[in-house]
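Hey, I'm writing a tutorial for new members on how sequence and structure tokens pair up, and I'd like a real worked example in the thread rather than a made-up one. If someone can provide the structure for the chain below, I'll link this post from the tutorial.
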Amino acid sequence: MKKFFKLTKSMQSAIERIRKNSNEDNFIYNLYLWILDNIKYDENHSTEFYRSARQVYNEKRAVCGEFVILQMAFLKYINIESHFVEVAMDNDGKEVVHACLGVKRGKGIQLIDIAYRSFDIFHKKYRVIDENELDMKFNNWNK
């Protein structure tokens, strides 16, 4: 497991509480709601680093890609496949440097965007990146 996905016991307990109040169909939505309630968007984030899932959880703040790292870590813990998605053009057609979560649904992918406060968003231009590329990017962000 990549270092930025590592969970503490407290994080595992949070996931188990969410899972206890969920079923297979609504766990991801309940996780989305939990993050909206517990982690705030970091308006003053420096561009000099990117937080790991553990840091986001402990500091209770994140920017778009850090929300994705936290969600992916939680979903990995219970073996749900998810992806880091780089967004180049958002749902309104605005060019952005942004990230959101992708979860496989049937033959497609559902985009879940905490920063945009949207559980099912339709960004116009995006790219799913694999974990090896994410690892390289995370290391570059934290030099």
